[in-house]
Amino acid sequence: MEVTPEEITRQIQNAKKGKQDAFKFLLDHYWNGVFGFQMKRVRNEHEAEDITIEAFAKAFDKIDSFDEKYSFSTWLVTISKNIQIDKSRKKNASVYTNLDTTNEQLTHIADHSPTPEDKLITEQNLAQLLRYIKQLKPHYQEVINLRYFQEMSYNDISETLEEPLNNVKVRLLRARKLLAEIISQEK
Length: 187
What we know:
By secondary structure, the protein is an all-alpha fold. The chain contains 9 helices and no strands. Helices cover 71% and strands 0% of the residues. This is Sigma-70 family RNA polymerase sigma factor.
């Protein structure tokens, strides 16, 4: 199914209202483009994935500032490019500094009702579910474990992983999407 520009505009407007499904749609729709762009730049899957997660987190935090007369994909790629440049500068300078993110970022992503993935996680046979989870990369396994098996809040996960809250939220969105794909492929 092709996604129309009108649908994208509608999803952006819903994201500006804090609707969880809209954030998920935007993440799913634009992930490959931003990740592919970063893979070409950094040639390291883990680093490209981290930059992509951070780019989405920053974009979702600043979604209200997005001007809809411009391309959302270009905006996302520009954010990811700036993050990658900053990381490269920091790495090349060999100076450790905290990322310019705060704990207050990404409070717009609501977490009110369980998503279909949430329901699936709670309803599945535990042994089968664990086999599916083991197919995820370790950092996705960890965030799924903390959220669903240890029942930690986003803030607690952020503190445990020593990562900004926005990165945790995007990583969990991505982990749930990948887990849902694995489960649907197996059935």
